[in-house]
Amino acid sequence: MLRLDVGRGASHLPPFGKDGEYAAINSMLDQINSCLDHLEEKNDYLHACLKELLESNRQTRLEFQQQSEQQNMEADGQGSQPPV
Fold it and tell me: What single DSSP character describes residue 5?
């Protein structure tokens, strides 16, 4: 990995000239850009997965709520009828 010491002058840079320095910096920036693109793709994928999970949980909660209300109504209906 190329390490540039900012503020120390060009004498501390690797001995391959300014064109080589720019090429090395461009290469590092390309690698960083590639890593950031990869992270962005992973972030988008995780975001989509979490949205799907959230929607699934909402649907499950709604179904559970409806079943619970139905059971409560059935229990209330049985309790209000006189015994036979």
Answer: -
SS3 (DSSP) at 34: helix
CB 14 within 8 A of CB 24: yes
- DSSP states along the chain: -----TTS-GGGS-SSHHHHHHHHHHHHHHHHHHHHHHHHHHHHHHHHHHHHHHHHHHHHHHHHHHHHHHHHHHHHHHHHSPP-
The tokens of 67 are what?
Answer: 């079943």
User: pTM of the predicted model, to two decimals?
Assistant: 0.57
Which tens digit of pLDDT belongs to each residue from 24-36? 999 999 999 999 9
Buried b / exposed e over 27-58, threshold 16 CB at 10 Å, is: eeeeeeeeeeeeeeeeeeeeeeeeeeeeeeee
Give the Cα separation of 14 and 19 in Å (integer): 11
